[in-house]
Every structure is written in structure tokens, then in C-alpha cells.
Amino acid sequence: MKTARFIPLLLSLSIGQALADTPINLTHSATPNARISISNVKGAVTVSAWDRNQVQVTGRLGDGAKPLAIEGDDSNMTIKVESQGKSGWFNWGSDTSMSSTTLDVRVPKGASLDVDVVSAPMNIDGIDGGSLKVNTVSGKARINARSPSIDADAVSGSIELAGNADKVNLQTVSGDILAPNVGGEANLQTVSGRIRVSGGPWRKLNLSTVSGDVQLAGGLAPNGTFDVDSMSGDVQVQVPSNLSAVIKASTFSGDLRSDFGTVKKVEHGPGSELHATAGAGGAKMNIETFSGDLRIRQQD
Predict the structure, then answer these.
(1) Which of 42, 94, 115, 256 is most buried when burial is the number of CB atoms within 10 A of its CB?
(2) Stretch 214-243: mean pLDDT, rounded?
(3) What mean pLDDT do residues 279-300 have?
(4) Measured distance CA(192)–CA(172) in Å, rounded
(5) DSSP conformation class of 241
(6) Cβ neighbours for 205, distance < 8 A, ≥ 6 positions apart
(7) In angstroms, how far apart are the furthest CA atoms of the chain?
(8) 3-state SS, residue 288
């Protein structure tokens, strides 16, 4: 019968429909400071810390994705959403055939995380003690954690960092960087995104931007270094009244104003510069802009 020819096709279609948007419910034992790698192309990733020595994954697996598993041992494990399509150079677009996958992951408080997403928003909450490394293309990354080290990269997605991190490396292309409590060491880079960062006292702070505006607020540790380089973005720096630092600042065509020292016009050519000493002058501050305005203010 002709209908017999269609039975395998109907079976394959029914299996595919059954796998579409499949519920996820996985668990794996974990050490208190396990390192966990999570990868998702599109959808969403939420990571929450709890007091159990266990990793739990719930959510919905999108159509076109391989069955999900937690791979590895108790101290080092991987959770990766992969396409059922073939891999390789001639199948580089196979991931686009997948529907969105939502991952809700519970991990021990002291865990360290490596999270990679493409067009998936990312939320990390409650980590206390582990290091974090995250990478996103267009999804927003929100991180609320107490961590010795946070490394986050984004292209068009923004990075919002709450909690406290002693050492951060935050980089975006067009996404904003918002971090209200950064201490110790900070490396901040963006092309056109805004930077709003406060914290300190900083032992070392490096910041560079092309056209994004910058607002920095915080103090420097004794003998700390503070370097800011901006092309056309405006820069506003607020420092405490007990600042102890040698301040060097300059702008080529922007407006320079400072609550410390006296701003002078460059003798030959356009631009303004500032050389000032606050307190004993233990730390070093170097701030340069090309066409952006620069403000150095003393906090009330």
C-alpha cells in the first residue's frame, strides 16, 4: 500500500514534535568549589547559588537541540546545549535551526563558573567565593556575586555587575558597563558603550573607551595607579577629599575642569592640561581625552 511509504515519515515527524520544547530535569553531585561550564546559543541562562553540594538543571530544551546531559565529575562539569545538525565548516549555520533553550541552573555557593552565550540573556546570582568568566554576544549579562575575580566580555550586550569583586576585567563593544562596587583591580574597555563604575580603593585601574561616556567614583590605594584614556567620550571622575595622588590630565579639544590644582592651556597648539598633587601624592592618576570633556571632582 502507498500509505506504508509514509509511515516512517509520520513516525519521524511525531518523534521530532515530541522532542520539541522538552522539559529539563537533571541533577549531579558537586564539590563545594566545583568549576561548572555552561553554554547556550539562544534562549536564556539563569544561574542561582544554593547551600547544597549539588548541581540541578531545569528549564526547557528547544527544538533541534541534542538531549542535554551534565558531563564530567563532581569537581569539574559541563552543561552544553548543542544542535542536532552536523558540525563542521560546511555546517557552520546549523545552530540557527535550534529553537530557544531556557536553562535554570542551581549550583553550590562556592562554585566557579564559565558561561558562554550568544543571543541569550544571562543572570548569575548568589555566588560567594568562586571566580566567574562569562562571554556573551548580544545578550545582557547580569551578575550579582561576591568573587575574587570576574572576567566578562560582551559585544552588543551590556554588563551589569552587583555584589563585590576584588579583581574585574570587563569589556564590551557597544554594550554598557555598570558596576557600583569594584575593588582592588579593574580593567574596563568599551568602544561606544557607557561606563558607570564606582568602588575602590583601587590598587590598579585601567580604562579605555572610544566614544562612550565615562563616570568613575572611588579612591586609590596607597601607591595605586589610575589610567584613563578616552577618544571622544566625556569623562567624569569623582575622588574622595582625602585623596593622596599626583594627578596628570590633558585634553586636545575638550573642556577640562578640576577641583584640584589649576588647569592651563597648552603653550603650543590647542588643548588643556593639569598637573596637581593631592595630599602626600602617593598614588598616580593619568587621564587623557582627545575631544571629550573631562571633569575631576572632589566628593562631598
Answers:
(1) 115
(2) 96
(3) 94
(4) 8
(5) T
(6) 185, 186, 187, 188, 216, 220, 224, 225, 226, 227, 228
(7) 96
(8) strand
Residue 117 neighbours by CB under 8 Å, 6+ apart? 39, 40, 41, 42, 45, 135, 136, 137, 139
Count other Cβ atoms within 10 Å, centred on residue 96.
11
Q: Where are the alpha helices (DSSP H) in the chain?
A: 3-19
Question: What are the backbone dihedrals phi and psi of residue 263, each rounded to the nearest 5 degrees, phi first?
Answer: -80, 135
Nearest residue to 280 (alpha-carbon basis) of 236, 224, 226, 229: 224
pLDDT band, very low/low/confident/very high, at 23 (cuts 50, 70, 90): very high
Residue with the three cell numbers 566545583? 34
24 φ, ψ to 5°? -110, 135
Q: What is the pLDDT averaged over residues 255-274? A: 91
Nearest to 68 by CA among 53, 47, 85, 83: 83
pLDDT in tens, 168-208: 999 999 999 999 999 899 999 999 999 999 999 999 999 99
Integer CA distances (angstroms), 46 to 43, 67, 150, 199, 239, in order:
10, 19, 17, 26, 35
Range in 32-36, 82-86, 127-131 with the lowest mean pLDDT: 82-86
Model confidence band, residue 268 (pLDDT cutoffs 50, 70, 90): confident
Burial code of 182-210, b = ≥16 C-beta within 10 A, e = fewer?
A: bbbbbebbbbbbbbbbebbebbebbbbbb
Position of cell 596628570? 248
- Flag whether pLDDT at 284 surpasses 80: yes
- Cα–Cα distance measured from residue 170 to residue 160, given in angstroms and rounded to the nearest whole number: 10
How do beta strands 256-258 and 245-251 pair?
A: unpaired
Q: Which of 276, 198, 269 is nearest to 243 (CA)?
A: 276
Task: Assign 243 to helix, strand or coil.
Answer: coil
| Predicted local confidence at residue 96, as pLDDT | 61
Q: How far is it, in rounded angstroms, from Cα 177 to Cα 167? A: 15
